Amino acid sequence: MSATQTRPPVVPANPSTPSRGFAERVRDAFGGPPGQHATGVANWVNMPVLLALLATLTWLVTTIRQQACLPGGGDGFANFCYSDLSPIYSALGGAGNRVYFDSPIDQPVLTGYLIEVIRFVMGAFGAETGAVTDADASTFIGLATVVLFGCFLVAVFATARIQRRWREGVMLAVSPAVVMTGLINFDLFAVALTMVALALWSRRNPVAAGAFLGLAMAARIYPAVLLVALLILCIRSRRVPEWLNLLGAFLLTWALVNLPVMLLAPAAWTESWTANTSFGSIWYVLGQAGTEVPEVGDLSTVLFILACIGIAAVAFLAERRPRVAQVSYLVVWAMFVTNADYRPQYALLLAALMVIARPNWRDWAIFSFGEVFYVFAVWAYLGGSLDSSAGDGAPAYDLAVVLRMATQTWVAVMVVVDIWRPVRDPARTRGGEDPGAGVLRGVADAEWVARWRAYLIPWPVLWGRFWRGEAEPGTPALAPLAPPVKEGPGGFREIVGVWLIGRASIVLTGAMVMMVLGLSFFEIIWRWDTERFMTIAQYWYPSIDTTYRAFYPGWPMVLQLNPVQLFGLSSDPETIRLSIAVWGVLIATACSLVAAAALVKLGGRWAAFGWIFAPMAVFTMMPYSESLFCAFAFWAWQRARADQWWQAALLAGLASTVRVSGLFLIGALVVMILVWSGIDWRGRLRRLAWLVVSVALLGAYTIYLYLLTGNWSAWSQAQEEGWARSFTMPWTSVENTLKVLDPNGSYVDQPFIMLIFGLEAVAWFLGFVVVGWCVRKKLWAEAAYVAVQLLAFSTSYWLQSVNRAILIWFPLWVMLAHVLLVEPKTALGARAQTVFRVGWMVISPLMMVLWAWLYFTGEWAS
Asked: What is the pLDDT of residue 635?
């Protein structure tokens, strides 16, 4: 180098450049990065040729694996190479049989057409297409292998064209998932059509994309869910008309393919879509464990819909529009993990979408490991090699199912992280655009997207806010709960006065019932769950009915502190029972005052007034668990909002010993920690650590029941045996509740039961109003606390005990205070508020007295 020459300046490293990936680290370990004079692989290798070569080698390995399972060969399960191709050929029957018309098969219509084409080619070459012999079946499998190889090549090259990157094509071309499942069935046909559809979409041709997607659904049903993914992105980008063009072409193509069989062989067409198994699903694992889930089909549909709503929320709230491949992977993943039928070969579509959604070799390896492990496990299980010697199912197979779903979920999580942090997305162009966006490329978001993000992003879900605790100056830790109205002094004294009036009303009602009906004090107390709590307190769990195990021990332990039992003043059962009853009334009444005091702190005096005069307030004076739970839970919430977490954790744990609702309380406190603004991950972890105390107290009763019965599900079994509270789909639960209200039904001669069940439905609906109000106020933890209880109630046989649950829904009473105190903005609103105030002040106390009368007289009172 001459003296006049200068060295090129050193370019500083770009801090935003993504860190080296798994493949780069492996490369550096074996030779290092390319040197200064390296020309690059693209200069000496023709990439299409390389792609075809890799795909051919992969398919050669796939074919060699399958040799051991040809007709007349070994056991497909024992050799880990089972295929449906031979049974499909056998089901076709004689030479003159036509698919669907003479030989119904469990294959969608377009796949059936492909099978007929293969049979025609067999006949053209002189094969006996109707003979069900090993030789002819092998010929059919050989031709099908060639056809599926062509489908594989199409899928590989289409994958490489979607985002115009050869890397994705290479990742699919060498995918172990193809080796393990490519020849199980004709699913590669549908995968090829699906990837072509996405490639056409990326080329700004939604009509052609819709046509190929319609063909893909005509070959297998699951590619249709990509319509959901594209709809989500089109809504965000204001390109719904393009999606409608896609949908029109999709429906027209699918109909043209299916109509001949639908009209001429409807029974065979229906059978081609309804044949299912349950292998590979999480529901099958639960069944193996002894937990049979009813209405699995309906439940999986609901869960898939909820998952799509969540995916849409992620897509709408992300700073940049997600890539088509990312949302497509998430939607297909959600369908498979919630579905009741998840066969090994279904993951071929997920494998193809994975390489364009998350083109990362580390995640490719994780995904592939899960698929390979599962395929070996499922064939071993079906071959009888994994049955447990203890006769309790096949734990190894269950583990394989869970591992498979875990690896697929890992990729889904990484995709979501890429969506929220697009700077680390390995597939975006340098300008940050989605290379596969098609008609969405360069299109601005709809205006409402920015408004939604501005409204909802105060959730600390963004990395900086959640992990590092970043927050705008002056941002409160949590949204305010109490009404923005200044109350005068003397709040607690007023509460004591109102509480005395409310309790006196219930006492007078009980006294009237005693005088009119001639009942004793013990007789008006000894009702429903009171009898159960008192029996547990007197005799404890081992020596009483097993259904009593449905009641948590916290309240019976408090009842055992009555003077007669505590000091051994008498051994007479009737004396002990009367002492428990009196003690229970006194403690429950005192706890109701403690709970009201907490509500003053949380929502002001009017929130406490509403709770004291709640229609079902009689349960806060009787030996029921509501008062004690509310005293613990309300103060736990108040201490948590005051950032006193050791106190909150202890109180929440004590509440968890009283009712199973403590589980929902702890979960809501976790949500509060997650949405707490202005604290970093260390602060969140410290607060979460305190909740270990709560979880320990919650789990203590479960451990006790296990030691008593040897059964971890003893509590749920007691619920089912005593109150028919087995898992039920929400719509079935509502339907069963409405049957009670039928004027021509079984309860027409029991009007009070019909009344209470009608109020159960009203209370359930009111819970949704509370959740909506909390969301509008950004009270996320409070919304979670009520929402999860609504879900629990709606999965029982019918809506039962919702009326009493209103007492523990403190957000309801805070909402009531807001409605009563916040000044309306219009004259009409002011008049409506006045009517509501007067109506509540009259109706609620009257209903409280009526409910007390129902309880004291022994009528059904929830």
From this structure: 94
